[in-house]
Amino acid sequence: ALSLAAPDVRIEAPIPGKSALGIEVPNKEVSTVYLREILETPEFQDAASKLTFALGKDIAGNPIVADLMKMPHLLIAGATGSGKSVCLNAIICSLVFKAAPSEVKFLLIDPKMVELITYNGIPHLLAPVVTDPKKAAGALKWVVSEMVNRYETFSSLGVRDINRYNKLLSSRDPRQHQPLPYIVVIIDELSDLMMVSPVDVEDAICRLAQMARAAGIHLVIATQRPSVDVITGVIKANIPSRISFAVSSQIDSRTILDLNGAEKLLGRGDMLFMPVGAIKPIRIQGALVTEKEVEDVVAYLVKHGEPVYLSEFPSPDEEDADKEVEYGDSLVPEAAKVVIDAGHASVSLLQRRLRIGYSRAARLMDILEAKGVVGPYEGAKPREVLMTVEQYHRYFGR
Fold this sequence. Notes:
It contains 15 helices and eleven strands. The chain has two domains: 31-309, P-loop containing nucleotide triphosphate hydrolases (Rossmann fold); 317-396, Arc Repressor Mutant, subunit A (Orthogonal Bundle), CATH 1.10.10.10. It has helices at residues 35-39, 42-45, 84-98, 133-157, 162-171, 190-196, 198-211, 233-238, 250-257, 291-304, 316-327, 332-342, 347-354, 358-370, 389-396; strands at 10-12, 22-24, 52-58, 63-67, 74-77, 104-109, 182-187, 217-223, 241-244, 270-274, 282-286. The relative contact order is 0.13. Helix 4 runs parallel beside helix 7, helix 6 packs across helix 7 and helix 12 (332-342) packs across helix 13. Keywords: ATP-binding, DNA-binding, Nucleotide-binding.
């Protein structure tokens, strides 16, 4: 690096397939790779999978495309301004170029409220772009229930996955049976969701990552904070395909890729792509799609088709409002379960388990006492729990 006057070098030891060491020296003039270049290549055009998307070009200038079916989920991390959101835009644009709205549906979750909101109104959407982190947890729960419903349908027909199911339907009368679309769930900032409802979000992501592939449901998750409290061990274990853009330290690089190297990337689309089953990551210059191009694609799609949103898509606000009318607070059923499982009741217990403030926990305790779940206040002693598990199931219908 000193002799070459290079900003950062990566050492590839050894080069795969050769008995030699490789030293990657960044080009002083970074050439821009445009998304259109990759979309026009035979690698993308001739790909059979409807979930093929363009990534960019490798260090030799070869176009790199990937198939979300084979991944089957993708984790993207990198510091602010390193190219994550452009990569997400490239993935979405690639998929809408490859698949019709009846073949692929998107559920877009964008807590930042600015990156994915542009796609509102395209016919590929299952629901309007979700921007509220609380609603996002409900949206992920809906995806889990859709996965379970699909597996029950597959089981009743004796098929193993979505491809066999759709082939079976096409062999019957195609006018009576609509094929199931693939569902791609794209989360632009996981850390925001993990701060608001970590338990619900992690549980839903883990269930989907473990089981959703055969049901035709795929996750693409991006975060700018690749720390262990956001990308937990359970999430990492279930999402083997990963992309790392430039990060600030070796620790962040090891968190996302399990090896060093991402801290030496140049930013602006420079990435390391670790596909499932690979021993070493591939260095890629990511494809650039401009805001104007995204707006043109969205305008074209909106002009040629209307989205059919799910009528049964859950609205957590409505669910909470119903619970609030019925119980006085939407957390009453959860609070009752916490104290019954613990065998004793205290305000501090509710604060810890439900991650709420003192005033709300104290109000919940008053409601539980009024409903006969817990006994009266007894000074320093914890309150007695009066309701049994059977009574809880009868009363709360759970």
